[in-house]
Design a protein that fits this description.
It is built from 10 helices and no strands. By secondary structure, it is mainly alpha-helical. The protein folds into 2 domains: 8-151; 154-313.
Length: 313
């Protein structure tokens, strides 16, 4: 079954189904990492983000469960981040080579030590196995604890939970967009990226309740999230260059810093403009629209999809 909430089914059952599927995907990614480290860790972290977005959507149904499981997923993601981030630095340089072919020779001076650094991050196979085994254990425990997740069954409280979850994430996106525009701090763009990714996921989950332009909005959010991810990679790369962890001749380090800084600034400008357009106002009437659709679906499973009013996303 698809990764979306089916309106004619009780929200509690849908939430358990979706969260269980996300936990399965996390486990699959970890198992893949035993054979293909970078690919497996990347898939695992993507699945963790989807699971956390689901929890954020439903947080107000059971705040204690949300806090506990979100913290577990966050800690699991952090335990895997070091090895994945090292690979992301190499990928960031590859993108720079593609967009600045005239600087390929200069960038190769950076790529070689970054590739070595990536390969040395988790060279200890025992350490990697330990990380994977720990992740699998955490995922299995979360699946067992899922039985304690308290969620509404009736349409009205279910609609309130969904609407409040969407609004909370949109408020976060608005705050991050405003702060990024005022301060241009890397942390604000990183927070914005997380809110964008969560909203993208939530729109997919709510597609059958919120059909107005969802496909177009998700494509725009996906592209924005990718560019914000590239901005974050460049921010990390620039900090790495400035830390002098990578041994480079002074003049080449200066030139590389200028190149990365210029590319990062261009991404900041374009992503901020897009985010301001996408999050310029919040959709109205979410709760009443969700109630209407959930009630109608419960009484008539074959009804046509309805639209939310006054929403650009």
């Amino acid at each position: 079954m698809s990764r979306r909430i089916v309106p004619r089914h009780p929200l509690a059952a849908e939430a358990h189904r979706l969260f269980a599927n996300d936990l399965d995907a996390i486990s699959d990614g970890l198992l893949l990492a035993r054979e293909k480290r970078d690919e497996g860790l990347h898939e695992t972290r993507k699945s963790i983000k989807k699971a956390r977005a689901l929890l954020k959507l439903l947080r107000f149904a059971d705040t204690d469960f949300y806090a506990a499981e979100n913290a577990r997923l966050r800690d699991l993601a952090r335990s895997l981040a070091h090895a994945r981030d090292a690979a992301a630095m190499v990928e960031a340089v590859d993108r720079l080579v593609h967009s600045h072919p005239q600087g390929a020779e200069l960038l190769e001076d950076l790529r070689s030590p970054l590739t070595k650094r990536r390969d040395e991050q988790v060279i200890d196979e025992a350490a990697l196995r330990s990380l994977i085994d720990d992740g699998l254990s955490r995922s299995a425990q979360m699946r067992r604890d899922m039985d304690s997740w308290t969620l509404p069954v009736d349409p009205k409280p279910a609609a309130a939970v969904l609407a409040d979850g969407v609004r909370a994430n949109l408020r976060r996106a608005e705050r991050s967009t405003k702060r990024a525009g005022e301060r241009s701090a890397d942390g604000d763009f990183h927070d914005l990226r997380k809110a964008v990714k969560a909203h993208w996921t939530q729109l997919g989950l709510l597609r059958d309740l919120w059909p107005t332009k969802v496909g177009k909005a998700r494509r725009q959010l996906s592209a924005l999230g990718e560019r914000l991810g590239e901005h974050n990679d460049l921010a990390v790369l620039l900090a790495l260059l400035r830390s002098r962890e990578i041994d480079l001749e002074r003049k080449r380090r200066t030139l590389l810093c200028k190149l990365v800084k210029r590319e990062k600034a261009a991404l900041a400008k374009s992503t901020l403009k897009t985010a301001q357009r996408l999050f310029d106002d919040r959709p109205k009437g979410l709760r009443s629209a969700f109630i209407k659709h959930l009630q109608a679906s419960a009484s008539s499973p074959e009804i046509p999809t309805r639209e939310l009013g006054a929403s650009h996303l």
